[in-house]
């Protein structure tokens, strides 16, 4: 550990860390690429919920409310559409699964399918 603080708690990050002479790919093997794509996709669908992130792209928070209900005409649709497209991508990802070998031909699609499965498992009407 190099003393890097956990951004949520401020406490030093305490591993587990990679063992000597290991890498992301050697640790996660065939899943490494799909795992990384899953992380990237989830960052995107999470960050679209943050008004400060939407401001970067020119969408302003309703100044009267300054609440998570961002600009009344378009912004509420941005997270909805982003999450809806991810759920759809999870369905279309099945085209990239090969049942005879139980393998995925594309890491992006494997990740999107996993995200859809998590959405379905979350329940509560999310999907």
From TrEMBL:
GO cellular component, one term: cytoplasm
PANTHER family from the UniProt entry: DIPEPTIDYL PEPTIDASE 3, DIPEPTIDYL PEPTIDASE III-RELATED
Record keyword Hydrolase present: yes
Keywords attached to this entry: Hydrolase, Metal-binding
Single annotated GO MF: metal ion binding
Recorded superkingdom: Eukaryota
Protein name: Uncharacterized protein
Lineage: Eukaryota, Haptista, Haptophyta, Prymnesiophyceae, Prymnesiales
